[in-house]
Amino acid sequence: MNILFLSHYFPPEVNAPASRTQEHCVRWVRAGQRVTVITCAPNCPTGKVYDGYRNTFPWRTEDIDGIRVVRVWTLLAPNSGTVRRILNYLSYLVFAVLAAVWQPRPDVVVATSPQFFCGWAGVLVSWIKWRPFVLEIRDIWPESISAVGAMKKGVAIRLLEWLERRMYLAAEHIITVGNGYRDNILSKVEMPNRVSVITNGVDGEIFHPRPCNEEFLARYGLSGKFVCSYIGTIGMAHGLEVVIQAARLLQERGRDDIRFCLVGEGARRAELEALAREQKVPVVFTGRLSKETMPMVLASSDACLIHLRDCDLFETVIPSKIFETMAMGRPIVMGVRGESREIVRQAGAAVEMVPDSAESLLECVTALRDDLSFAHQLGESGRAFVAERYHRDTLAQQMLTILESVADNVAIHAAPAPSAKTRPCYALAPLASEEQDGGS
Fold it and tell me: Are both 147 and 282 inside the same structural domain?
């Protein structure tokens, strides 16, 4: 097949959509498919083009691991603010469609969120090329915009909601990364046989247990400390002020043996760094590190925090970092409710915190620090679980099978991913708070 894939993000960017797209596409190439990815110059999340790249007008082409990568010009914008980011998304839509016109006619067009203007670029390309369209949903727009307070409900949001439904209906098939996303989409459009679930996963060849890197620890003053790392975007949705608050509580209680390390960039990094300096708490900010260093960073962490703000919409989110963390054999401090929590419960890989609660985060981290055998047990349990169920090779093949069926106009019997039937989980005092909040 000739697959045309539209993605706003692609390596060397290190976020989840970039990694998932590249890891799937490279496997399809190995399986004998021809794959073209239309993306933009790597710049996320700062809006500054990475070293060695240019924001070329109208586009430039390169080869990465056998994938033909077309990088179109966009109006660059950091991962913050509203107006300039929307202009960034719209410029991608325009130039991605123009670039697609000049590509060989594909057998199937694929587009991935987040940012549904990329999805609409896929719709337009499929109409122009007269080819079937598969939409991959990794984030529910525009609900997620409202959830983080980036835009208030009004005419603009209602227009985006209308466009969202039209985009779903334009797709021959929709692939989501979790059952929660699938249910959300089906509450808006009646197309149950055209929505499938292919979860995120992990490349076991890259993410596997290894010794910690003493040079990394020394560089950031982490030697001899129990390191709890957050790795990923430091954005509006992630609620990482809870880390600063927990670090202050550690300091007040005389615990100098634990350090929080925030690895990544995003709209709130500068604000959180300023807050940490103001409160004189020793939280480490590394800034953006390359994708190639992520296994080393995980191996050098004693535990990993996964956290989103306490919001109903985020219960549908399944951060890809949970699979990478488990594959590395590191215990998780789980600060996300919903399907993600059910996965790590089933794996027996995490202690659970109440999202946005510094006291709860502190309790989880100190429990792991004070019982290292317990922490090791969680890591080993998660590693075995993810190796069995979430290997990227299997997931890429599942998606390729759907693309082949769509291209051949074969009916697909869509089904949700297996539900996570939980075994006994490792929960601390936060469960009492969940009952007060009406949780189960």
Answer: no
pLDDT of residue 54: 96
Q: Is residue 430 assigned to a domain?
A: yes
Write out pLDDT tens, residues 338-388.
989 999 999 999 999 999 999 999 999 999 999 999 999 999 999 999 998
Is the same domain home to 76 and 12? Answer: yes
pLDDT of residue 428: 42
Q: Is 230 a domain residue?
A: yes
Nearest CA to 303 out of 411, 203, 414, 377 is that of: 377
Tell me how far CA of residue 203 lies from CA of 18, 20, 334, 390, 394, in angstroms.
Answer: 14, 10, 21, 9, 10
pLDDT at residue 281 above 70?
A: yes
Please check whether residues 93 and 225 belong to one and the same domain.
Answer: no
| Number of domains the chain contains | 2
Give the chain's mean pLDDT: 89
C-alpha angle with apex 339: 24 to 26, nearest 5 degrees? 5
Note whether 147 and 248 are same-domain residues: no
CATH number at residue 219: 3.40.50.2000
pLDDT digits (tens, 9 = 90+) for 221-251: 999 999 999 999 998 889 999 999 999 999 9
The tokens describing 294, both together, are 């992520």
Q: Is residue 393 part of a domain?
A: no
Range of the domain at 272: 214-386+421-436
Question: Do 234 and 105 belong together in one domain?
Answer: no
Asked if residue 227 and residue 87 are part of one domain, the reply reads: no
pLDDT of residue 149: 53
Confidence of residue 427 (pLDDT cuts 50, 70, 90): very low
What distances in angstroms separate CA 262 from CA 282, 289, 328, one per listed residue? 11, 11, 18
One-letter amino acid at 254 equals G
For residue 54, tell me if it sits in a domain.
Answer: yes
Q: Strand 332-335: give its sheet, edge to edge.
A: 284-287, 258-263, 226-231, 303-307, 332-335, 350-352, 426-427
The b-or-e profile of 291-308 (16+ CB within 10 A means b, else e) is eeebbbbbbbbbbbbbbb
- The yes-or-no verdict on residue 101 having pLDDT over 60 is yes
Calculate mean pLDDT across residues 37-44. Answer: 96
Residues 126 and 63 both lie in one domain? yes
Clarify whether residues 147 and 295 are in a common domain: no
Report the side by side order of strands in the sheet with 34-40.
Answer: 59-64, 67-72, 34-40, 2-6, 108-112, 133-137, 173-176, 195-197
pLDDT at residue 416 tops 80: no
Torsion, Cα 395 396 398 401, to 10 degrees, reads: 180
